[in-house]
Specification:
The protein has 14 helices and six strands. α1 crosses α10 (about 305-310) and α8 (about 265-280) runs parallel beside α10. The protein has helices spanning about 1-15, 95-110, 130-140, 155-160, 195-205, 210-245, 250-260, 265-280, 285-295, 305-310, 320-335, 345-355, 360-370, 380-395, and strands at about 65-70, 85-90, 115-120, 145-150, 170-175, 180-185. The protein is globular and about 65 Å long. It has a six-stranded mixed sheet. The chain starts with a helix and ends in a 20-residue tail after the last helix. It has about 425 residues and is an alpha/beta fold.
């Protein structure tokens, strides 16, 4: 369960940060429009890794087309007889950069000088080549594989053809030139520890990975997903009608139905239900019950949802004493899970402490988050402004609370 939760948390940072990502609701801090209609737009990674009939697992790998090669020998196709990883990335994509050390280790395992790992840059603009070249010079310590700048054709025939919408995105090509797997490079393994990408590559190398079986499973999953999507579309249309009619209770019923059918793609709706109850209907107790139910049910292993719920109960609307305590304990769970090394989790916990009337703990927790980011970054500057608010409320500029991150995890009362 720990791996699943960590994977879910870093889904916020890794799996969707360079795609169409949703951020914590503006309504949570009182700056947004609480009357926004609910949407079933998903921020979760698609349940299937390819779009059958376009480019899918089992299909022949398309050619490679570049406007420029930076590392490795220029070529127009993957190397026959060898396992090849084609990785889509960009210099502006933080999650892509975070995955590079691991990709480099895979490159060293696969072949000399990483020739079986090709990183395809999706950088655009007249200065794209210069931007990529500068990046590679500055981050040579984490890049041990081939790098090419896409000319648009590789994106079209690989990335877009497979229905991918966010980066980083990995394509594994088997020795026979067929696609064996498509997905996020840091996705937790479906079997055992580690990452699914590693499991697939090792299976291809030792002959235990069955591409035909995986292709069949992907097609079946895609068909099932299409049926679910049709049901969700029908329910969403009715939900929109009720929203326009002002029937918020009716909308909540439809949200429950959609979440039950497709929880993996309904994170936004689950969040919206709590927002409607808390911010629009003023039903703090009911909102708390809904949040707890979601975290104990379809989102039990989803740390990103835990942080979202903690944020909502630390916002402008008064969630009551029980709601504030829930925000603190929920954020603490995620901080403990990540051993206090994830700044986003610490920031959410700090605000939860502050909303619960614990400014000293809020300040200490935020300082911990600040220690994990570059002190010249915009994030650090923002944290400093928030810290001044916490310190002003504490009255004495309290020092860091050492017991906040004891071996037993963050304390509940600060």
């Amino acid at each position: 369960m720990r791996m699943a939760q960590v994977g879910a948390l870093f889904g916020t940072v890794l799996l969707t940060a360079c795609g169409e990502q949703a951020s914590p609701s503006a309504a949570a801090d009182g700056t947004g429009d609480a009357a926004q209609a609910p949407s079933n737009t998903s921020t979760a990674e698609p349940a299937v890794d390819a779009t059958p009939g376009v480019l899918a697992v089992g299909d022949a790998a398309p050619p490679l087309s570049a406007s420029r090669w930076f590392l490795g020998e220029e070529r127009t196709a993957v190397t026959p007889g060898r396992v090849t990883l084609v990785e889509f990335w960009a210099t502006w994509c933080g999650p892509c950069i975070a995955a590079m050390p691991h990709i480099s280790s895979l490159a060293r395992e696969l072949g000399d000088e990483g020739r079986d790992v090709v990183a395809v840059s999706l950088d655009r603009g007249d200065d794209a080549a210069q931007v990529v070249e500068s990046f590679l010079q500055e981050r040579a310590d984490i890049v041990d594989f081939e790098v090419m700048l896409d000319d648009g054709e590789t994106t079209r025939t690989w990335f877009e053809a497979a229905g991918q919408t966010g980066i980083p995105s990995s394509f594994v090509v088997a020795q026979d030139g067929r696609l064996a797997w498509i997905g996020h490079p840091m996705r937790p393994a479906s079997q055992g520890d580690g990452y699914e990408l590693d499991r697939v590559i090792k299976g291809l190398l030792d002959g235990t990975y069955d591409i035909d079986a995986q292709a069949s499973a992907a097609n079946e999953a895609a068909s099932a997903a299409a049926e679910i999507a049709a049901q969700v579309d029908e329910l969403s249309a009715e939900m929109g009608r009720l929203w326009s009619a002002g029937d918020r209770r009716g909308v909540l019923d439809y949200i429950d139905q959609i979440v039950a059918i497709d929880p993996e793609s309904s994170h936004d709706l689950a969040q919206r239900k709590v927002e409607i109850l808390l911010f629009e209907l003023g039903e703090a107790d009911e909102a708390l019950d809904a949040a707890k139910s979601m975290l104990a049910g379809p989102y039990e292993d989803d740390a990103s949802m835990q942080l979202m719920m903690a944020s909502l109960f630390s916002g402008a609307a008064d969630p009551g004493e029980a709601g504030r305590a829930f925000a603190v304990s929920t954020a603490q769970d995620v901080v403990a899970l990540t051993d206090g090394t994830e700044p986003n989790a610490l920031v959410v916990l700090a605000e939860a402490h502050f909303a619960a009337g614990q400014p000293e703990s809020a300040a200490g927790t935020l300082r911990a988050a600040m220690s994990l980011v570059d002190d010249t970054s915009p994030a650090h500057e923002t944290y400093e402004l928030v810290l001044s608010r916490y310190l002003a409320a504490s009255g004495d500029g309290a020092e860091f609370a050492e017991d906040e991150f004891s071996e037993d995890g963050p304390s509940a009362d600060g």
